[in-house]
Each structure stands twice: as C-alpha cells, then as structure tokens.
C-alpha cells in the first residue's frame, strides 16, 4: 500500500486484518451517503453551489488526469460466469459479501484426488493436504488484500479524498479542511451581516418619494445639460470652422513668409557678394594708395645724393668735403666729393629746367670741370644775354675751370690752386643763379586732399647768401690768409645749399606726380 498523496509506503493497522462485517459496515456507513444521481431533483429551486464553481469544476475535470483509484466500485475478483455479480454495497449492506470463502472441494478439482502414474491414495492425500494448507494461507492473504483495497476504493468513491493516506498527509489534510471551514464560516458571517444591513436599509415610502423627486430633478438637469451640450457642440463646430479657416490663412502666411525669407536670403547673399567685392576693391584701393604715397614719398634724389655731416665735415654719399689738419682728408676724397656735388647741381638744374648763364657744369667724377663761356667785347651782363642768343655770329670763348686739385704745392706756393679756386668760385656762381631762379619761381605744394591739384607758395630763399667767392661768412678760395677751417666751413655751407635745392626739386617732382595722378583719375 502507498499513500495516495505522497506515494510513501504504508503499514496498515492491525485492526484492518480482522475486520468483521459489522466493523466493515460501520466504516462504509461513516463516509455518508453519496450524492443523488440527478442534481436537478433537489428540493430547492437553486443549486447548492455557485455557477462559477460549477464552471471551474467542468473546466478542471476536462483537463484532469485519471486518478490512482477510480471512485467506482469494481466487480468481485472471483466473478465466475455461473455466479451472479454481487450487488453494490450501500450504507446498510453487509461487508461480508465482498468475498466468498471456498471449501476444499471447490478449491481442489475432483480429478486431482486420483493418483497419477499409480501413486498410493495415502501419499496423494498427504500431498493434497500440504497443498491445501498453502492454498488456504495464500487465499487468506489475498482475500485480506482484496478486502482492504475494496474498502479503500469504497471510501475514496464516497468522499473527495483518495485513500489510503499517511498520518502526515492526514494532518495536513485536516489542517487544510480546518482552514476551509474557517473561511466558509467567515464568508457565512459576512453574508449574514450583509443580509442584515440590506434588510435594515429598506427605504420607506417618504424616502422613495424623495428619491423619485431627486431622480426627476436629476433627469431635468440632465436634459438641460444635454441641451447645453448640444449648443456647445454647435458652437464648437463653428469654432472648428473658424480654426480651419485661420489655419488655412496661417498656411498661406507661412508660404508667403517662406517666400519672403527666400527672397531676403537671396538678396542678403547678393548684397554680401557686393559688399565683399566692395571691400576687396577698397582694400586694393587702400593698398594702392599707400603704395602710391610711399612711392611719392620716395625721393630718388635723396637716395642718389645723400648729404650729411661727419663731425665738422659736410659729406655727400659718405665723401667728406673739406680739409683739416686733424683729421686729414685725402685730396682724392675731396675731388670725388666735388664731383658728386657738381653732378647733383647739374641734375637739379636739369630737373627744374634751368640753364646756367655763362657756365656749363661737366660732372666727370674726381676730375669734374666747369666751362666758363665768354663772348668777345661784351660785358658780363651782355655775355649772359648772349649765351641765350644762338644766332650770334661771334664764337664764344670757353675757359675750362677745374673742380679738383692734385694737392702738390711746390715750394708751398698757394697760388698754384688758382684754377681750382676759379672752379669753386664758378660753382658758387652757378649755385647762386639756381637759387635766384628758385626764389623767383613759386614753389608748388601738394594738396592735403587726395586727387586734387596742387597749390603754390612763394619762392624759397637759400639758407646762405652767396656773393662772389663767399658763401655766408666764409670764402671758398684757398689763399694766403685762408685757413683750412674756413674753407671746410664754406664747403659745408655749399653742401647745405645743395641739399636745400635737392629738397625743392623733390617737392616739385611730388607735386607733378600728384597732378598727373589727379588728371588720370578724371
């Protein structure tokens, strides 16, 4: 035997081995009567269980597997064709009819009494007696097991629990049934209290009338609210139409705005391109203007003839013009300085368009000369006028004057420098003539406004007055009473006047370039 819950092997109680019919009937009767065959024959008009539980039972019963023991009472094991099937045991039926004790004549067949192969009757009886004893013992054990199984089948068929079960499962089953009983008791109490409250809350006639009046008022309010709802829905439909019209107008405005921004972006792009081009042109114009101003400020004469000073000496292109005892200057450097000075004066006269009267400067480096042109039987003033008259029939007298000296003074005679002194005096005369021309000619000045014509200023005067062989207070001649310092100072004054004329020529050139640029811009 095994427990039908936990499948644990069971040891049956000894009282089940010697059950009499009364005890068997008592056990069968204690399980109670089975349910009637037809549930519809109940005295009450409704079923004893809820419909949801019935539906749950039907659904579970369709999916449930077959139990270990079927709750049906099977037929007896020793059912013979000649014997009738015993009736099912009810509550009052005897349990002794569940099995039949067979006699020896029924257990042992008749043909087995006689010996086989000539055995003696005594030996056969002894063998049959032993066999009968074994059969009785086996039959008693089998009948006991069959009776016990039938007992458990009947009990299982008449209850909701499969038997047999062990003591532990019985305790658990009892505990579960107690919980179910407690739950059912609480449910019953809840139903009772609800029924009492329901019976106590039965309204009176006045309460019914009040409720009906309230219901009528509520229905009227509902009707009014419904009419108001219809009006609101109509107004809502009108508003929806207006919203649709406004949305359509908004879409049109969006399209117009999109077109406007597209045109605006296109215009902004075009304007940006124009502005970039304008900025590029302005940058180019500014660069060219600065370049023009830089070029206008560039003085080629200053670069070609750099006049300065070195201590007490005046210098031109780094060559000292003058002579002192300490430091001493070679005559080669002095001659080269006079050559640069002669070239400078000739260049300025050519730039200003001036022609010397009675003199012609021939710049030849360290051996530069000045030609003195004299016409016969004419005064000095007339010779100046005759120099401009190319139709004169008499040939002029040309005297070469040196602007250099070898420095050799035989016997320390200073009159050996007579030709050199005459050349320096002639250079001062040329310088004086060019200074008078500049003084009598209006000096052009650049206009402060770019692109306009220049204005003129009165003529400029040389910083040092030239009179014959003197410039300022120093004589240009080398004589008996002339010391080197005076001659060096006279040479320095000469370079100063040349630098003055050089600046004037640069201004004239700048004014001319500005005028040409203004004319070109027109």
UniProtKB/TrEMBL annotation:
Region described as Disordered: spans on this chain: 74-93, 113-136
One of the record's GO cellular component terms: phagophore assembly site
BP GO annotations: autophagosome assembly; cellular response to nitrogen starvation; late endosome to vacuole transport; mitophagy
All residue ranges annotated as the Atg6 BARA domain in the record: 295-507
Database matches in Pfam families: APG6, APG6_N
Xref: InterPro entries: Atg6/Beclin (IPR007243), Atg6/Beclin_C_sf (IPR038274), Atg6/beclin_CC (IPR041691), Atg6_BARA (IPR040455)
Keyword Isomerase (UniProt): no
One term of GO molecular function: protein-macromolecule adaptor activity
Domain Atg6/beclin coiled-coil: 164-292
Coiled coil ranges: 205-298
Keyword Coiled coil attached: yes
Keywords: Coiled coil
Biased composition (Basic and acidic residues): 127-136
The family this protein is said to belong to: Belongs to the beclin family.
Name this protein carries in UniProt: Autophagy protein Apg6
Gene source species: Byssochlamys spectabilis
């Amino acid at each position: 035997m095994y427990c039908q819950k936990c499948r644990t092997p069971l040891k049956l109680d000894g009282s089940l081995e010697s059950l009499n019919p009364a005890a068997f009937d008592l056990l069968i009767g204690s399980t109670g009567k089975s349910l009637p065959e037809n549930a519809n024959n109940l005295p009450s008009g409704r079923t004893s269980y809820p419909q949801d539980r019935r539906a749950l039972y039907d659904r579970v019963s369709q999916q449930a597997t077959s139990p270990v023991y079927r709750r049906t009472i099977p037929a007896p094991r020793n059912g013979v064709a000649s014997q009738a099937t015993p009736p099912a045991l009810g509550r009052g039926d005897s349990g002794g009819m569940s099995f039949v004790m067979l006699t020896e004549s029924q257990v042992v067949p008749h043909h087995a009494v006689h010996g086989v192969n000539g055995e003696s009757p005594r030996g056969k009886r002894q063998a049959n007696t032993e066999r009968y004893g074994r059969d009785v013992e086996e039959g008693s054990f089998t009948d006991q097991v069959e009776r016990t199984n039938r007992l458990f089948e009947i009990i299982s068929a008449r209850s909701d629990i499969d038997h047999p079960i062990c003591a532990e499962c019985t305790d658990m089953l009892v505990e579960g049934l107690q919980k179910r009983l407690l739950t059912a008791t609480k449910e019953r109490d809840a139903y009772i209290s609800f029924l009492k409250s329901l019976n106590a809350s039965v309204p009176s006639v006045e309460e019914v009338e009040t409720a009906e009046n309230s219901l009528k008022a509520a229905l009227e309010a509902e009707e009014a609210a419904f009419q108001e709802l219809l009006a609101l829905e109509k107004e809502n439909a009108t508003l929806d139409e207006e919203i649709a019209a406004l949305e359509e107008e908004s879409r049109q405005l969006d399209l117009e705005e999109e077109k406007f921004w597209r045109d605006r972006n296109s215009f902004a792009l075009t304007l940006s391109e124009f502005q970039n081009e304008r900025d590029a042109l302005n940058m180019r114009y500014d660069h060219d203007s600065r370049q023009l101003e830089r070029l206008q400020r560039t003085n080629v004469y200053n670069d070609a003839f750099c006049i300065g000073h070195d201590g007490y000496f005046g210098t031109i292109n780094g060559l000292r013009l003058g002579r002192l005892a300490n430091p001493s200057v070679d005559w080669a450097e002095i001659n080269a300085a006079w050559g640069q000075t002669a070239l400078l004066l000739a260049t300025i006269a050519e730039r200003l368009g001036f022609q010397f009267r009675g003199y012609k400067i021939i710049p030849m480096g360290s051996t530069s000369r000045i030609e003195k042109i004299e016409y016969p039987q004419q005064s000095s003033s007339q010779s100046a006028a005759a120099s401009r008259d190319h139709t004169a029939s008499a040939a002029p007298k040309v005297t070469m004057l040196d602007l250099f000296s070898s420095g050799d003074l035989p016997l320390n005679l200073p009159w050996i420098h007579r030709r050199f002194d005459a050349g320096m005096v002639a250079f001062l005369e040329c310088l004086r003539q060019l200074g008078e021309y500049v003084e009598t000619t209006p000096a052009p000045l650049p206009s402060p406004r770019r692109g306009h014509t220049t204005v003129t200023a009165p003529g400029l005067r040389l910083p040092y007055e030239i009179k014959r062989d003197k410039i300022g207070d120093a004589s240009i001649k080398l004589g008996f009473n002339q010391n080197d310092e005076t001659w060096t100072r006279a040479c320095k004054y000469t370079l100063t006047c040349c630098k003055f004329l050089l600046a004037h020529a640069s201004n004239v050139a700048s004014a001319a370039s500005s005028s040409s640029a203004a004319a070109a811009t027109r």
